[in-house]
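Q: How would the structure tokens look for this protein?
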Amino acid sequence: MARGNPKKNLKTRTLVEAGRTAESEALHQILLRKSSMKLISTSSDIWMGTQLLFIDIMASLELLLKQMRGRRITERERKKLKQTLAGIASLIPVTTVMLLPVSVVGHAAILAAINKYMPSLIPSPYSSERLDVVKQLKRSKKMEVQTMSNQQDASSAISKING
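A: Here is the predicted structure in token form.
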């Protein structure tokens, strides 16, 4: 039986293990980066939804004050008022579920199930449709500002040339 050098075998195993560790570390970094981006995106969506809810509440308070002053509100205003009250009412159980001591994966699974099987339970300010509209408006506004900035730069360059 030929036995190899035990020090050489030890060194080989260490290099293989080191390779696995480096590969594992790279995978962990990728997973961490993806998770961080998802957390940032979700946090942004929650913040936007909260802002929308606050706007809805303020508009509903104005409608309630209008109605208390004896003025009639339109059917559209009444529908908006009901929608806001339903959003506030559905926010309570969703918030309660989110406060349960469950892992992040558990919360994601719960929210996915709620969104799939009971989408009306998600308050409308947090719905993907409304959030997408807000995101589109922000992109449009950003493009408009960039266009105006480019026009101003062009006009100042022309005036310098002509000046």
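The chain has a mean pLDDT of 76.

The helical segments are 6-68, 75-99, 104-117, 128-162.

Upvote if useful.
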